[in-house]
């Protein structure tokens, strides 16, 4: 095989033709010189040379690559053939397009999230280090412990910490709220990432008393500073403090957490360790292990360092009775671990779908091969070897799968666009995901594999053709008993595969149903929400905070279209932020580590009314409760149930967060699913914001009209009170809920569509097989009817057969599904993976579909005219 | 003609200087007193094969009767190949001769 020669074979053929012509002329001239007449001279020359065509052919063959050349012929032939059977070609290409497209899309996400290395230098040696919390690695540790590891742990090459922070960026463009992070100065060096602009933080930035420094995200730099390189070293004011811009992060920088901070600021306070204070400061720790240090080795070394400080750690952080472990978890595991299960489940499902599509195409091919016997037989008779015939059939499939591959790319991009738009957390950074070459590579690989795989079976069948038979019997010839057993077997496989996918869909639908049945505890329609964090420099006293809250409520309530407005220190679905230990009046005070704790929310008296959250017992907060009256609290139902006997919470007094002041519980509110409907409600305590002012002021507005339309009014109301106060994250409650539940919705939607496509494919398979068998048995059925069989008997006979086939498929599929559903476990809510109802529902759906698919050919069989069938042939 | 001998004969012909296919065939036939008839069906493929191996090179020239013709010439690699093939051929002839003529006669 020589590619250079192959590519130049046409030119060489021309050359050979010239050479041969020259020979003939010269030889003729020689012959003329010998005295022959012209005709004879020419004839003699031609005799001597032999057949020039043959010589050229031999040279041509020397230069070609036989397989490629014949493949080209095959492709041309295949295209012509497929054009003649457009129905088959359309069905096959559509089936494969869906299979290949879905696989290409999911695989590119799979690759991007789970296979592609993290964008850090030598990511395998990066770890997330921290204490375990509730038996799971948290990546969080006390700053003091982090500082000890940094100086004493020899297995570490470098270690940095970060904590999330929020910044109020002020300036000429107006105030803006930024999600940011505080990091130690060596953070980027630990990750091995260089800033796009500037040198990043230096050691000097970390020194006490050094001016504050910050790094900007590429996005913020582009948006707020127009991508101006002179931004470097300029000063900005955030949280009323001057920061020097020490650099801009690369566009593709990935912060090692599930959010991307717009600003990173230096915070070296975790490096000054003092145990024994009343608080510990928790930080996220990112560590780089020394070369050759294993995960176990690193964990052991870190634990050994920590053990030196056990005696100094407060008991609520490290309790000798229930000691928590230090865990070094590979960073990649911490970042993508939670996405593995859904991605594996999705990839498995689309894989099953592709397999199903292959079986479907093979089945269609077999159905067609009956018709094609004569053509294949003719080619064999004309000297095509079996290998050549097989190659021809596979080439035909490659044309199908190649076309499907191209269309599949379109489907894949469309699917990815939907995934990107749906806020699904499977993607790394929604909106920036670019599938790139992986999608094309995997599509190409699948097209080739599918073409060969789906073509193999018909090719094998073609190789078994008996020449004489095929030519003699013509189009009605069939492959005899053997093929008859192949097609039902294929349909059985289709039914089984479809059942597996349907079981998955059923389980996810059931989970979704269970989730949807959970009550939020408030009415989400018509609610507009916004988050505010008061600028510390403007609101440094409780009185100022209280004044702002009062003014804001007053202005909001006065807006047209607003029914009521309330304030809360944390909105549902945005985390808590505040919490505290609880002591009950009249009960013994347990040691610190054993005190129960609960999230605490500061709300305005109008909060519950605005949310339409029912107060089940006692009373709501009223305007009469203020800073001069006794402190009051409302607890939620879970709190009341957990800490008090039924109905006895109201009137009880508690102490919160170590404060000596008693707070009286005046009411019990319905549980609000603060962290989403899939998380059990926490016990919560609501305090009155006027009695305990905080700087977290989040607004809920109950509107009479479309809540989104009020966003600008809301913004204006805040600005009219304080024009430097930024507000951020204006969102309707419904939108918040939609985004929080996007994962489950999209996953369910995806798997259900896959299941339905699988169901359709299985139905096509059943229809094909039954209708073929009806065709074959026309005479037999006619005979039966002539002998007295009724239409109903024939109908029953045909349906029974397809039911048998379906049942066998269901049995196989249920077995496989029983084993495979455990991969879905982590995606389920409120239903066990081996849910009999799900299997039953999926099976029933398949049975009904199978019966429906078999009904049409069966009815045709029942209407056979016995006289006509017996007379023909 | 024996397999492989045509290649050697073509190479040998070209030692004398570049030549086109027609005269190569003629030359072989004449030198062998017409004992060896060059089958043209194999001459042309052989020329292409030798060219592919780099033993001969071709160029466009004009023939004695001023026609455009493709000329072939020996390359250094071809010269080496010819020497190797010739010595192998001579050994072969010697061996066969030894068998055909009894040892008591003087060997060639």
How would you portray this structure in words?
The complex is a heterodimer of chains A (873) and B (108). Chain A is 52% helix and 15% strand. Chain A is built from 25 helices and 21 strands. In chain A, strands 1, 2, 3, 4, 5, 6, 7, 8, 9 and 10 form a ten-stranded mixed sheet that branches. The longest helix of chain A is centred in the middle third of the chain and has 51 residues. About 1% of the residues of chain A have low confidence. Helices cover 56% and strands 15% of the residues of chain B. Chain B has a three-stranded antiparallel sheet with strand order 1-3-2. In chain B, strand 2 and strand 3 form a beta hairpin. The model of chain B has no long low-confidence stretch (mean pLDDT 81). The interface between A and B is medium-sized, with 25 and 18 residues.
Let me know the average pLDDT of chain B.
81
Helix run count of chain A: 25
Biggest β-sheet: strands ordered side by side in the sheet of chain B: 1-3-2
Instruction: Profile the largest sheet of chain B.
Output: 3 strands, antiparallel
Our estimate of the beta-strand percent of chain A is 15-25%
Number of helices of chain B: 4
Radius of gyration of chain A: 38 Å
Task: Give the helix/strand layout.
The complex is a heterodimer of chains A (873) and B (108).
Chain A: H1 3-7, H2 9-33, H3 38-49, H4 52-63, H5 66-84, H6 86-115, E1 126-133, E2 136-142, H7 143-152, E3 156-170, E4 176-183, H8 187-191, E5 212-216, H9 218-225, E6 235-238, E7 241-248, E8 263-266, E9 282-289, H10 295-307, E10 326-330, H11 331-381, H12 386-421, H13 437-463, H14 467-473, H15 481-517, E11 527-532, H16 542-558, E12 562-568, E13 579-584, E14 597-603, H17 607-611, E15 615-618, E16 632-636, H18 637-643, E17 653-656, E18 662-669, E19 685-688, E20 698-703, H19 711-721, E21 727-732, H20 733-740, H21 742-776, H22 778-786, H23 791-820, H24 836-862, H25 866-871
Parallel strand pairs in A: 4-8, 5-7, 14-19, 16-18
Antiparallel strand pairs in A: 1-2, 1-9, 1-10, 2-9, 3-4, 3-6, 3-9, 5-8, 6-7, 11-20, 11-21, 12-20, 13-14, 13-17, 15-18, 16-19, 17-18
Chain B: H1 5-15, E1 19-20, H2 21-31, H3 40-53, E2 56-62, E3 68-74, H4 76-100
Antiparallel strand pairs in B: 1-3, 2-3
Helix pairs in contact in B: 1-2, 1-4
């Amino acid at each position: 095989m020589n590619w250079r020669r192959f590519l130049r074979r046409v030119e060489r053929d021309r050359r050979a033709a010239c050479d041969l012509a020259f020979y003939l002329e010269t030889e003729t001239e020689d012959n003329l010189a010998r005295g022959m007449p012209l005709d004879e001279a020419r004839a003699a020359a031609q005799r001597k040379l032999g057949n020039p065509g043959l010589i050229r052919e031999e040279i041509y063959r020397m230069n070609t690559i036989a397989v490629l050349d014949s493949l080209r012929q095959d492709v041309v032939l295949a295209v012509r053939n497929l054009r003649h059977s457009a129905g088959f070609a359309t069905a096959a290409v559509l089936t494969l397009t869906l299979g290949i497209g879905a696989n290409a899309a999911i695989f590119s996400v799979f690759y991007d999230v789970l296979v592609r290395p993290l964008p850090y230098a030598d990511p395998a040696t990066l770890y997330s280090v921290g204490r375990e919390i509730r038996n799971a690695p948290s990546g969080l540790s006390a700053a003091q412990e982090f500082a000890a590891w940094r100086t004493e742990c020899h297995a570490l090459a470098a270690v940095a910490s970060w904590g999330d922070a929020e910044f109020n960026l002020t300036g000429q463009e107006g105030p803006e709220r930024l999600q940011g992070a505080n990091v130690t100065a060596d953070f980027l060096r630990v990750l091995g990432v260089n800033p796009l602009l500037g040198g990043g933080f230096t050691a000097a930035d970390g020194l006490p008393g050094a001016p504050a420094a910050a790094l900007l995200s590429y996005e913020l730099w582009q948006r707020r500073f127009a991508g101006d390189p002179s931004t470097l070293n300029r000063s900005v004011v955030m949280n009323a403090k001057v920061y020097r811009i020490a650099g801009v992060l690369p566009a593709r920088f990935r912060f090692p957490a599930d959010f991307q901070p717009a600003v990173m600021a230096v915070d070296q306070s975790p490096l000054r360790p003092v145990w024994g204070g009343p608080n510990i400061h928790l930080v996220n720790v990112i560590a780089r292990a020394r070369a050759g240090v294993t995960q176990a080795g690193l964990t052991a070394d870190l634990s050994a360092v920590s053990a030196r400080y056990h005696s100094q750690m407060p008991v609520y952080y490290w309790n000798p009775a229930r000691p928590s472990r230090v865990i070094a978890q590979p960073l990649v595991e911490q970042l993508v671990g939670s996405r593995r299960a859904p991605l594996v489940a999705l990839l498995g499902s689309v894989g099953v779908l592709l397999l199903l599509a292959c079986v479907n195409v093979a089945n269609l091919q077999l159905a067609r091969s009956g018709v094609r016997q004569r053509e294949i037989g003719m080619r064999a008779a004309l000297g095509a070897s079996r290998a050549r015939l097989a190659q021809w059939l596979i080439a035909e499939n490659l044309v199908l799968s190649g076309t499907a591959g191209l269309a599949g790319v379109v489907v894949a991009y469309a699917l990815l666009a939907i995934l990107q738009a749906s806020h699904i957390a499977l993607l790394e950074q929604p909106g920036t995901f670019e599938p790139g070459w992986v999608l094309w590579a995997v599509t190409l690989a699948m097209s080739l594999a599918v073409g060969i795989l789906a073509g193999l079976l018909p090719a094998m069948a073609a190789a078994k053709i008996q020449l004489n038979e095929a030519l003699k019997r013509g189009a009605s010839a069939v492959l005899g008993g053997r093929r008859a057993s192949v097609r039902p077997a294929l349909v059985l496989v289709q039914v089984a595969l479809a059942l597996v996918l349907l079981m998955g869909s059923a389980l996810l639908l059931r989970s979704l149903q269970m989730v949807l049945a959970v009550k939020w505890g408030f009415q989400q329609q018509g609610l507009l929400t916004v988050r505010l964090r008061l600028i510390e420099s403007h609101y440094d006293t409780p009185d100022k905070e209280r004044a702002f809250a009062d003014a804001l409520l007053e202005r909001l309530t006065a807006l047209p279209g607003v029914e009521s407005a309330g304030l809360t220190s944390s909105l549902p679905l945005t985390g808590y932020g505040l919490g505290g230990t609880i002591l009950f009046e009249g009960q013994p005070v347990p040691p610190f580590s054993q005190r129960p704790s609960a999230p605490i929310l500061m709300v305005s008296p109008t909060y519950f009314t605005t949310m339409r959250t029912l107060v089940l017992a006692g009373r709501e907060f009223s305007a009469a409760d203020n800073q001069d009256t006794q402190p009051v609290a409302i607890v939620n139902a879970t709190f009341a149930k957990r800490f008090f006997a039924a109905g006895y919470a109201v009137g009880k007094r508690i102490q919160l967060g170590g404060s000596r002041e008693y707070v009286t519980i005046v009411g019990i509110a319905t549980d609000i699913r603060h962290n989403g409907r899939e998380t059990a409600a926490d016990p919560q305590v609501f305090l009155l914001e006027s009695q305990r002012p905080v700087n977290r002021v989040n607004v809920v507005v109950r509107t009479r009209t479309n809540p989104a339309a009020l966003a600008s009014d809301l913004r204006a109301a805040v600005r009219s009170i304080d024009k430097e106060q930024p507000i951020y994250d204006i969102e309707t409650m419904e939108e918040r809920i939609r985004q929080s539940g996007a994962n489950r919705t999209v996953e369910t939607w995806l798997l259900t569509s896959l299941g339905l496509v699988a169901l359709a494919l299985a139905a096509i398979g059943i229809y094909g097989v039954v209708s073929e068998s009806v065709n074959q048995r026309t005479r037999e059925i006619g005979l039966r009817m002539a002998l007295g069989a009724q239409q109903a008997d024939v109908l029953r006979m045909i349906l029974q057969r397809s039911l048998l086939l379906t049942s066998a498929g269901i049995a196989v599929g249920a077995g496989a599904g029983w084993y495979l559903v455990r991969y879905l476990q982590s995606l389920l809510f409120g239903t066990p993976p081996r849910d009999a109802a799900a299997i039953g529902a999926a099976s029933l759906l398949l049975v009904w579909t199978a019966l429906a698919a078999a009904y049409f050919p069966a009815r045709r069989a029942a209407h056979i005219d016995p006289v006509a069938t017996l007379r023909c042939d | 003609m024996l397999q492989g001998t045509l290649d050697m004969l073509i190479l040998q012909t070209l030692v004398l200087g570049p030549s086109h296919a027609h005269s190569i065939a003629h030359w072989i036939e004449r030198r062998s007193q017409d004992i060896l008839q060059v089958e043209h069906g194999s001459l042309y493929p052989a020329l292409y094969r030798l060219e592919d191996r780099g033993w001969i090179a071709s160029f466009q020239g004009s023939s004695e009767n001023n026609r455009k013709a493709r000329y072939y010439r020996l390359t250094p690699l071809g010269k080496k190949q010819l020497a190797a093939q010739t010595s192998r051929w001579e050994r072969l002839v010697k061996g066969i001769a030894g068998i055909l003529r009894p040892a008591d006669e003087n060997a060639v």
